[in-house]
Fold each of these.
Amino acid sequence: MSLYLVTGGLRASDTTTRGYDAEGNPLWSADHGTTVNGVSIGPSGEVATGGTRISDTTTRLYSPSGDPLWTADHGNTVRGVSIGPSGEVATGGNRVSDTTTRLYDSTGALQWSADHGNTVNGVSIGPSGEVATGGNSVSGTTTRLYSPSGDPLWSADHGAAVRGVSIGPSGEVATGGNRV
């Protein structure tokens, strides 16, 4: 049975993440340890969650059957999480020590950190490993695109706080946010 849907939410009775099949039948549940703000399903069915910081854990990767594979600390609350084509995991969240965005490889090893300049609310990994972030405005910038190695490629202003961002199959970036 394939995993089709995962949900994350507020912590209640040690369950913050659930996996469901295509018919809505629960397959597994797990506890991230606190509130989950972002969830992503990878190409092999692995599940990444990002949430409120507790005990130096903000990011978790689960196997398709819900077994924890690794945990990492973004350094502050994670607001968005994305799994890329090679199983890499990007997180975006509240600004701490000039870091809002992190990229981990498929084993949980930190690859790079970058500063969007303000809180990141959404993050997406593209087909070539590029990472897009969307967040609160700072100096007219709400959207950034980074190379797979973490170098900034471009910045743009959505006109208001970006809440979600996605990279398409040809590298195009779409954002959605607050109405100006």
Amino acid sequence: MKTLIAPLAMCVVLAGCASSSQLSTGAGNDAFTLWSPQFPDGGALERRHAGDLSSNPNCVGSNVSPALSWSNVPAGTKSFALLVHDQEGRNGLGVAHWVAYNIPAGVTSLAEGEISQPSAKYTGGKSTLGLPTYMGPCPPARTGQHHYVFTVIATDLDPGQLPAGLSMGELLDRLNGRAKAGSSIVLRYGRP
């Protein structure tokens, strides 16, 4: 089984996932751009955005997903995929917090809390915890700020073309040669 770091590196190669570190919003730029209307790139998520699994003492939040928007969609885009990945999670092995795809090309934003539950707007894949919906940050205490990479990938696949339940690695394999562009932001979260 491939580690999650390798698929994320593959995302950078396949989708041209460019960090939007110099971009705080999608305004005034022609590049395909992902941003959060709530947080700047590099900003800190609030406790309510952390996970809420009662079985995990590291999950101390309300599992409210942040709002996301993207603009300057590449010509020929038919659907989008979205990933949320914590590269420091599991002692550097990484944690996929959300894997979603089959998002229709007409959808260019998701409201706060919208991806915390199933939706007709996307097909849920399988996170590291086996969940099809957003699972907020759950880092152990005193492990510093973890960096949650939110990535949107424009694809030439029709919505509904991919089956439910794909892991991050499986999705990236299926997007090989089908990705048109990508954009990422990083949001941070840590527990004292």
Amino acid sequence: MAVTHPSISIVICTYNRDRFIRAALESLIKQELNKAFYEVLVIDNRSTDQTARIVQEVIAQNPDTVIRYFYEENKGLSHARNRGYREAGSGIITYIDDDAEATPEFAASLLQFFEHHPEAVGAGGKVLPKYPDGEEPVWMSHYLYGFVAGQDHGDQLRKYDRQMKYPAGCNMSYRKAALEKAGGFNTDLQFRSDDKAINFRVRQFSQDIWYVPAAVVYHNIDAERLQPENFRKLYLKTGNEEKIRVRAEKGGWGLFTKGLEFVFKWKVSWLIGLKFLLAGTPAKGRYLIKSQWYTLKGFFMKNVFVR
């Protein structure tokens, strides 16, 4: 089956996620939207596991769904995301993570939104964490939802604002024309902060980026992700790539103010941690303080390597 002009292109950028990639693709195969209106692109960012084999199996087993596979040699999530929108055949580009599962109405809700809001340049939806044992870790709080890419702003359609911030990379959509005008994703950001960076670039020419609550994905959080060492590495990397992002967007003065912001947040985390302690949930406070310390430390490190 071939779709000459799909209405929406759903892009999965993947690296060594053979445990989850089949479920991610199957969730897109089961979309309520007519298959003539969407395509799925898998951008393999130099995986060394069974990802390629699994994707090819799924393609062969589902000839009625347009799934296209690409191997991206340049390492880094932003390289893969740029390849995704450049290869896409539609004017609407939707990104979900390789360990996410979309609900059946996901694609239809996004396509309907963009059709009814021609002025909109971007959209984001709900990202609901799916934990290994079905239970949220005792140390999790809303301050740490970014660690699991969690995003839930309720059930009302509305624009992203200062409080809501920006669409999470696990579930974000932009018009292809907007991505092109913005110059694509910042390829200096290889692992974190690229969703924040593309939001900043697009907002230089349009504020019409919306939260679409009907567009829901469940984000599989494996046990390894929740380990203390991985927690440390991800927040170190967050701080490190925030430095890269801010330098590109605001220069030296921006770096100075961002550094002060991280110092302030680390100090405030101790006060919030005390509140958690008094409330009988010390683990929440302890992990919050750690997250801010690792982010601050990563901001002042030269390089942080994760994968």
